[in-house]
Amino acid sequence: MAAAASDAGRFRSENQDAAFTASWGAGVADGVGGGPAGDLASAAFLRRLAAAHVDVRDEDDLAERLRGANWDLRAHVWRDPSLEGMATTFTGIVVARGGHVLIGHSGDSRAYRLRAGVATRETRDDSLVQSLVDHGLLAPEAAASHPRRNIVTASMTGAEDDHVTVGRADAAVGDRWLFCSDGLTDYVPEERIFATLARPLKPARVAAELVAIALAAPTRDNVTVVVCDIADGDADAGERPVFYGAAAGLFAEELEELDDDVDDDAGDTRG
User: Fold this and answer.
1) Cα dist. 190→24, 64, 88, 144, 252 in Å?
2) Looking at the chain, which terminus has fewer C-beta neighbours within 10 angstroms, N or C?
3) CA distances (Å), origin 267, targets 33, 75, 271
4) Each residue of 34-88: pLDDT tens digit?
5) What is the DSSP letter of 231?
């Protein structure tokens, strides 16, 4: 069971976050600030990734699917050079054949897992600030307020050498997973996030509460939260994903038209 909530926030004119949920997977993407068309980048990446059931066997399959979604960003730039430089983060999970769960990650959106009341962070930020922390040059508690905390060192830009980490997630029935953009984690302490995540409420209610907490902080960014409860049973391969944020609403119709144009322009150049 999975649900999400997304809000542009009080200080942004547009929402550059996107998310999707389905019984077979879920994820969040955040258009990288400072570049053009962050909303298009996050939405295009997720909609191409999750337009149909992500039928994967292993890490290599998921990596290939992520490369395909990333290729779409480059195709959009080929069609419209003014989009050069657009980029997005991505963090999400997919249920593979056999029932095991795979996780993909690039950038500073995050994944957390709640198991038996204990929450753990399951991704490492690809960011300048995280590098400073790793090298002992910045205290972890100072990272959230660092003036350069929004500089990411990896993201999906459409380039061949973009870095995405793919691996098998330690997921079990009864776990609760959280995927979120930095509009939550940069403004709300992890202790508050974990306490809310642990509340015995449905995913939709928890996601909405976490977004509300971020808005009250107040976050100065877009904020998107995805909450997933790992349940027993087979994923529904035919289930259409639900999209949120930049990947939903009127923009989704515009994006579908852009995708059609990109496919027409690209022809057989995908190889």
Assistant:
1) 27, 33, 23, 11, 32
2) C
3) 31, 11, 10
4) 667 889 999 999 999 988 777 888 999 999 999 999 999 999 999 999 999 899 9
5) -
Q: CA angle 162-168-170, nearest 5°?
A: 130
User: How far is the C-alpha of 153 from the C-alpha of 119, rounded, in Å?
Assistant: 26
Of 77, 49, 75, 80, which Cα lies nearest the Cα of 63?
Answer: 49
Q: In whole angstroms, give the CA distance from residue 19 to residue 5.
A: 8
Name residue, tokens 């709640």. 114
Q: What is the pLDDT of residue 139?
A: 65
List the end-to-end C-alpha distance of the chain, in Å, as a whole number.
37
For the chain, which ranges sit under pLDDT 50?
250, 266-271
DSSP of 234-267? ---TTPPPEEEETTSTHHHHHHHHHHHHHHHHHT
Q: How many C-alpha atoms does 109 have within 13 Å on its Cβ side?
A: 35
Neighbouring C-alpha atoms within 13 Å toward the C-beta of 17: 29
